[in-house]
């Protein structure tokens, strides 16, 4: 089975699970399933991230970070009416990490840096994804916004991959990722705008309100964010001399799947929180 067939098989299994989790993300009785899926993704993404940092000699707090992340995600999704609890979990996590390294005294700058960067790089974007379905500013369309995020981000990835392989000539970032090309990046950018416009047109029949101008702009911003996220993970793997973050058939690793969301989820959260509420980007 070649790589393309593995990708298609993995997608045929993964996409229905993700869609089901999104559908139930705002249902009180089923929120736990959404929280469980995000926690599972975070668990393996953090494991892969800290495996990369360990190659460079850092000894991060892998299990504590995974446990605190799961607690934070369940809190944000299942208890959204108590936002102070999420902040308390983050505060306790940072205090706990400092205390652990104060006691051990072993290269605290390197190890704390790797630990906190993992929390920022993996946990923070997933926490924002956890918050989007329940945002008041989303006007009860949180599930649609979350689906929109995935469609635009992954359309960028998919178009950049296929058109890069088909038409790619000029390398985009030869040191970071020799196989990524300007042609692939441009097609990924165009695909994001097209899918963003299509989603807005279809979504308007289901209460998803985003103007065509806003849709084109947001699609462009998310595409740039997705490609920077992809390159950022490639930079980490290149520094650790790793081809993939793990060995999932057709996917590489969990970190390879969520890398495009590192910057797109904060961008979308800011758009909804401060743009829609003020009518700026509606």
**Total discrete domains:** 1
Helical content stands at over 70%
Name the average pLDDT: 85
Uncertain ranges: none
Radius of gyration, whole Å: 19 Å
Side by side, the strands of the main sheet go 1-2
How would you spell out the order of helices and strands?
HHHHHHEEHHHH
- As a percent range, the share of strand residues is under 5%
**Global geometry:** flat
Annotation field: number of helices: 10
Main sheet record: 2 strands, antiparallel
Cα distance spanning the termini: 45 Å
Q: What report would you give on this structure?
A:
This protein is mostly helical and 282 residues long. The chain has one domain. 73% of the residues lie in helices and 3% in strands. The protein has ten helices and two strands. The chain has helices at residues 3-23, 31-55, 62-78, 83-104, 108-131, 142-167, 182-203, 212-239, 254-258, 261-276; strands at 171-173, 177-181. Strands 1-2 form a two-stranded antiparallel sheet. Strand 1 (171-173) and strand 2 (177-181) form a beta hairpin. Helix 2 (31-55) packs antiparallel against helix 5 and helix 5 packs across helix 10. The longest helix has 28 residues, at 212-239. The N and C termini lie far apart (45 Å). One of its GO terms (biological process) is CDP-diacylglycerol biosynthetic process.
């Amino acid at each position: 089975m070649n790589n393309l067939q593995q990708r298609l098989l993995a997608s045929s299994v993964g996409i229905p699970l993700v869609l089901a989790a999104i559908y139930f993300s705002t249902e009180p009785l089923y929120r736990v399933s959404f929280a469980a899926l995000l926690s599972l993704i975070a668990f393996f993404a953090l494991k892969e991230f800290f495996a990369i940092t360990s190659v460079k000699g850092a000894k991060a707090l892998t299990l504590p970070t995974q446990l605190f992340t799961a607690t934070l995600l369940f809190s944000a999704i299942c208890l959204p009416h108590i936002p102070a609890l999420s902040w308390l979990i983050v505060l306790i996590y940072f205090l706990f990490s400092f205390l652990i390294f104060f006691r051990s005294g072993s290269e605290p700058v390197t190890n704390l840096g790797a630990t906190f960067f993992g929390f920022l790089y993996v946990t923070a974007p997933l926490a924002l994804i956890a918050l989007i379905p329940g945002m008041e500013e989303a006007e009860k369309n949180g599930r649609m916004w979350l689906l929109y995020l995935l469609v635009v981000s992954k359309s960028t990835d998919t178009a950049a991959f296929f058109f890069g392989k088909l038409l790619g000539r000029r390398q985009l970032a030869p040191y970071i990722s020799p196989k990524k090309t300007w042609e692939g990046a441009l097609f990924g950018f165009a695909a994001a705008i097209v899918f963003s416009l299509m989603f807005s047109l279809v979504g308007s029949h289901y209460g998803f309100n985003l103007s065509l101008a806003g849709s084109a702009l947001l699609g462009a911003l998310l595409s740039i964010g997705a490609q920077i996220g992809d390159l950022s993970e490639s930079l980490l793997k290149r520094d650790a001399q790793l081809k993939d973050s793990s060995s999932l058939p057709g996917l590489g690793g969990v970190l390879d799947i969520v890398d495009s969301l590192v910057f797109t989820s904060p961008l979308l959260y800011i758009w909804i929180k401060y743009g829609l509420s003020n009518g700026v980007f509606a």
